[in-house]
Amino acid sequence: MTQETRSFQAEVSRLLEIVAHSLYSEKEIFLRELISNASDACDRLRYAALTEPALAEGDTEYRVTLIPDKAARTLTIGDNGIGMNREELIDNLGTIARSGTAAFVSQLSGDARRDMSLIGQFGVGFYSAFMVAEQVEVLSRKAGESQGWRWMSDGKGEFTVEALPDAARGAKIIVRLREGEDEYLDPARLRQIVKTYSDHIGLPIILKDGGKEETINTASALWTRPRSEITADQYKEFYHHVGHSFDDPWLTLHNKAEGVLEYTSLLFVPSTKPFDLFDPERTQHQPRDAAIQPHGRTNSPAIDKANFERACEKSRRGSRRIRQILG
Question: 222-326 sits in which CATH class?
Answer without folding.
Answer: alpha beta
